[in-house]
Design a protein that fits this description.
single chain, alpha/beta, Ribosomal Protein L25, Chain P, Alpha/beta knot, seven-stranded parallel sheet, 26% helix, transferase, rRNA (uridine-N3-)-methyltransferase activity, rRNA processing, methyltransferase, tRNA_m1G_MTases_N
Length: 238
């Protein structure tokens, strides 16, 4: 069947409207034509984070595939504000954090410099690529924003009156989720690096943060991210 809907969902930066023509980049075109074995007249899902989700028909197969937009399938819905601040990590943990945070509904990712980070380098272009891939796969309508790193202490300079800062405290001093997840519009979850927060950082954090306990075990950073965000989804964003 030439007009079948492929199991393909793509993010594009272009504006999307009925009957518009979207030209894919070479990577997306290669994936559709070589990996998914698409043919002309096959249909795919398209979204851009602003105009909802659409179904489009492949109208030209080339190194830059063209897709003619047919119909809107899901209207754009604004995600609730949810920020994840995380100590910069290296290796496979970083893409795990970005992908899992995207799947769990984070709208803003803020890397932070802390005393125990193993590296100060972070590739924001790669982070955005991982976020896009995760949004494509989890049926999300938007892409989380990824900011340039800041110092952990700079968080206190933000609008603390309207932000519920929640730091994941592995020392056992944190509270239960139901005690600290209030109905403020902005929740900032703060997760430390692989070496955890220093005692000085924790003391500083408690001048403007609520402490969250994730249990008695010491978790990997990416596991802590999922655990904390699961609490947010259960107790607040329901």
């Amino acid at each position: 069947m030439h007009n079948k809907l492929l199991n393909v969902r793509l993010y594009v930066p272009d504006s999307i409207s009925k009957h518009s023509i979207i030209r894919l980049d070479t990577l997306a075109s290669h994936y559709i034509s070589k990996v998914m074995r698409a043919t002309k007249c096959n249909h795919v899902k398209i979204f851009n984070g602003k105009d909802g989700e659409w179904i489009g028909e492949i109208c030209e197969l080339s190194n830059n595939i063209k897709i003619r937009i047919d119909k809107l399938t899901r209207k754009q819905v604004k995600s609730k504000n949810l920020t994840l601040c995380f100590g910069i990590v290296k290796g496979t943990i970083l893409p795990n954090i970005i992908r899992q945070a995207t799947e769990m509904g984070v709208t803003l990712l803020q890397p932070i410099y802390t005393q125990h980070i193993a590296t100060s380098n972070i590739n924001l272009d790669k982070c955005r690529k991982w976020a896009i891939e995760a949004s494509e796969q989890c049926e999300r309508l938007d892409i989380p924003q990824i900011l340039h790193p800041i110092s952990f202490t700079d968080l206190k300079k933000l609008d603390t009156a309207n932000i519920n800062f929640i730091i994941c405290d592995e020392t056992g001093n944190g509270k239960k989720p139901a005690e600290i997840l209030t109905n403020k519009n902005n929740i900032y979850i703060i997760v430390g690096p692989e070496g955890g927060f220093s005692s000085e950082e924790l003391n500083f954090a408690y001048t403007f943060c609520n402490g969250l306990s994730l249990g008695t075990r010491i978790l990997r950073v990416d596991t802590a991210v999922v655990s904390a965000l699961a609490y947010v989804n259960e107790y607040y964003y329901v």
